[in-house]
Amino acid sequence: MKNLISLNWRSKLEGMENVNFLNDDYYIYRNEKVEPHTGPFKMDMTICGICLKGESKGRVDMIPFEIKAPAISIVLPGQIIEHEYCSDDFEGIYILMSERFNESLNLPDRFSNFLSVRNKPVIPLTDKQLDAMLTYCKMVQSVIKVTDNPNRMEIIRHLTIAFFYGLGYYFHKLPDGTKETRSEVLMRNFLKQVQAFHKQERKVEFYADRLCLSPKYLSQTIKSYSGKTAGEWIDEYVVLEAKVLLRSTNMTIQQIGDELNFPSQSFFGKYFKRLTGMSPKAYRE
Length: 285
Description:
Blueprint: H1 9-14, E1 19-22, E2 26-31, E3 41-42, E4 45-53, E5 55-60, E6 63-68, E7 71-75, E8 80-86, E9 91-98, H2 99-104, H3 111-115, E10 122-124, H4 127-145, H5 152-173, H6 182-197, H7 204-210, H8 215-226, H9 230-248, H10 253-259, H11 265-276, H12 280-284
Antiparallel strand pairs: 1-2, 2-9, 3-8, 4-7, 4-9, 5-6, 5-8, 7-10
């Protein structure tokens, strides 16, 4: 049985003076710096980051992102986040929402599809759009501070529904720019398959079959487009998942190897060391 340990961000946030939160479902705070995490990590909440000043760079599920003020980014529960750079003048507002809270919003279709955030996690904002989002933040913070109001959660829920309807409109209104090439579409679809099945399958043939392509064509196209082979992308995602489990859970190395469908702890250890230069135990420490 897995024994998951959540990153201690909840207790850290609740101990900060500038954080407003309600139960374990909703947090909002202003931050002047993003401290790079020691490695890739996952969150069990949706993270909305409104960039007010400066810029930040990183990767979400291996896809590079860059956010420059004014803009908003959204990371969904379970996505692997890697922070790589944050400018000295960075300033932002962060909103964290639990899956339970998201479900209570009853947004149409799936949450991620409604916002189109898996393919477009960052959206630039006009001054008018930024003002609207800051108004939402101020209203929510005011509601949370009235601690004797028994309807705080319901009020925040309705404010957030309006917020996301407006945000969904902005996402869908964005100009597409240049049309995606076949290689771009294939790369995106390939990574979706890797994200979904990397715990079960590490063979290129499996993903080629899922995409109705020959392994040779898939490998050549991915290599030509990205500079990495399909096998290298698969290995990278498996290692990212392993790093997340090693740093943010108390699962044993054997359990992590089982989770990632390796035949033995020894096989997993050799695989991890070949790709990272260190053993799973050394990385965890």
